Amino acid sequence: MSDVEFVIRPFTAADQSAARNLILKGLGEHFGFIDESYNPDLNDIMAHYILPGQTFIVAELQGTIVGTGALISEGERVGRIVRMSVARDERRKGIGQALMAHLIQRARERGFTRLVLETNLAWDDAMGFYRHCGFFEEYRTDRLAHLALELL
Hints:
By secondary structure, the chain is α+β, with helices and mostly antiparallel strands.
């Protein structure tokens, strides 16, 4: 953790471009390319997440969006974590952990007793991060690890 001062806050329409670009840049850094057809939800975050009553948050540092995360309903008592992303230069400063802690708290407030997520098996940093946050691997498919966290 560092002394960096950032703010975790709800997404607003004014964050659209910065949040979309941050997430796509992170995907591009990892995979080496971006196929935007795989990410249609990012074209209108407000319509896809906020208006249907889901949670989308951002981490802001000195007026710049440096992290994102979302919580969507997977079922009556199950939530799914998606769109976790932190700018490369701001990683390992506690931003990702703060985003996750905020989403876990929000999940509890929404009555979820379980959180799930998935990530690419080859994304070692993400796998380590999610395990550090308490998620355990439930199963794997060809390219993905499916993880869960029981909320007690």
